[in-house]
Amino acid sequence: MSGSAVEGLSQCGALVASTGGGDATTAAAMIVAESLSSIPVPLGLALPLSLRGGDPEAQSRLHLGLGFCWQSQLLPYVHRAIRRSGDAASPWFTLPPLLVCGAAGVGRTHFARRLAQLAGLPHVGLDLSDPAGTEQLRQRPRGPDLVLPSLPVLAMAVSGCANPVISIAGLDGADLETQGELAKMIDPRTGARWVDFATRSTVDLRQISWIVQCRDPSMISPALLGLLSRVELHWPEPHELPLHLAEVLAEAAIDAGVIDRVEHRVAEGLIHLQRASGSRSTARLYESARHWVRTAIE
Amino acid sequence: MRASRLGCRAGASGAAAMIEPDRCGETCWPALDLDTESVLLMRAMPADIEPTGKIVILRTYVGGGRARSIFDWMCLRPGDWPLWGRLAYLFGEEAVRSVVIAAAEREAEKAAIEAEEARLEEEERIRLRRQIDLYILDPKSKRPGLSLQSGDEKKPFFLMSFSEKWERERVLDWLRWQKHRFHEFRDLFQAEGPVALERLVIAGMRATEAEIRTRGLASRGRRPLRFWRGE
């Protein structure tokens, strides 16, 4: 591609690319929404949204920064996605839809957040075990009450990004209708033009990285199961545990905005987390790390 | 795992000569730049990203001639290399310094203290070994005795028992003036056993008694050397 002209704006889902003069980096973007009526699509969804994670910095971060070396089933999917994101034809990061299984506390959400952060992608979580979460997937019209866009659509609109990372939790407890709705979003045949009633548009959800969490795959409908690549996560072995503690400590420090102030006291933080690791829960480790960061650093 | 001391391999930049372990880790391993007295952490990279297959993810100046000892310490802990690599990436140089360099220096200091303590203990043991004491034994309801004991041991190495106290006193009259020969007695005991030493003691006592009698200095009664003072 050459020149500075923006091409191919008119069609929903069409890749739009623009290049800066003399710069080899191509910034990819796409229009994700198309109005079902004459009313323009709201929330800026009519404009091209960026496709992120393919730039050299993101590639470098993903290569160097993604730990989880003990998650042997997970890493091949991620590495393939990293390699694809370096491809000139699709210079952005997208994971195939994953079904991430494992015992409670192994760190599924932690992984999703870290991956999104390294790839430079927005991350949003959705808990389908909560009725409010199911409503966020697709709101039902209720008389005069305003129907809000589905959470994936909102995520794209708010972030201006066409390929966010979306974590789905609580699928084990979701009913078949909800699972079916989710399947329509994930299936590329239907996800290419998924109808969002709130915005009165069809939305292309195909570039979303779906990370579906589950403890019991037998509770998932075959239709949905067939769309997902299953990986099993496990709690790190004793010799791998310090790596996990370092990752959680970093996540807590990043969230608190003090990652550049922690380095002199990392040894102390790791010792603190080591004491909390007996619960084998990444969520508890994270809370413990947040507490330590608040009291020791902030 | 031993650090490579034979030659060195060029670093990622090719400019600085670096020493790396004989076997590098799969993802991360330490390296040493003697010229700049720095320890480094190297990271394996895919060849399509980095043609040399590795990059430097951390370089930290140690100085003071300590770089080599810290590098050697790091090489002995290949199980920790992945963690150090992650800490360098996640938190930066100071995190690695606080976890690795500080730990290496603490261990070096601890080792030096232990070595010094061991040296002092050995010196003390040698000093005590030189010390041999003569004990007079009067255990209740048992036979009177004499013993020789090294300062570095808890039990006597030589024990003489007697039927009567005066027999013990007779031997003691001679033995107490043989302190300059106690090392000789211990050597004999170790070489030939307690009987040989007992024979030597008794023979020596009798020889001295005979000599003192000849000189007219012997006491009357059962203890000829009672007032002998070793002269």
Q: For the record, give the distance between the C-alpha atoms at the N and C termini of chain B, rounded to a whole number.
A: 66 Å
Which class of secondary structure composition applies to the elements of chain A?
Answer: alpha/beta
Helix/strand/pairing category of chain B: alpha+beta
Beta percentage of chain B is 15-25%
**Largest sheet features of chain B:** 3 strands, antiparallel
Question: How many distinct folded domains of chain A?
Answer: 3
Question: Which homologous superfamily in CATH is the superfamily of the largest domain in chain A?
Answer: P-loop containing nucleotide triphosphate hydrolases
> In terms of per-residue confidence, which ranges of chain A show pLDDT below 50 for 5 or more consecutive residues?
1-11, 18-25
Number of helices of chain B: 6
Strand arrangement across the biggest beta sheet of chain B: 3-4-5
Give the fraction of residues assigned to helices of chain B. Answer: 40-55%
Overall mean confidence score, pLDDT of chain B: 87
Protein topology:
The complex is a heterodimer of chains A (about 300) and B (about 230).
Chain A: E1 15-19, E2 26-30, E3 33-35, E4 49-51, H1 56-65, H2 75-85, E5 98-101, H3 108-119, E6 123-127, H4 131-137, H5 151-159, E7 165-169, H6 176-186, H7 188-191, E8 194-196, E9 201-203, E10 209-214, H8 222-225, E11 229-232, H9 241-255, H10 266-276, H11 282-296
Chain B: E1 9-10, E2 17-18, E3 28-33, E4 38-44, E5 54-61, H1 67-75, H2 81-91, H3 93-130, E6 132-137, E7 145-150, E8 158-161, H4 165-175, H5 182-192, H6 194-215
Antiparallel strand pairs in B: 1-2, 3-4, 4-5, 6-7, 7-8
Helix pairs in contact in B: 1-3, 2-3, 5-6
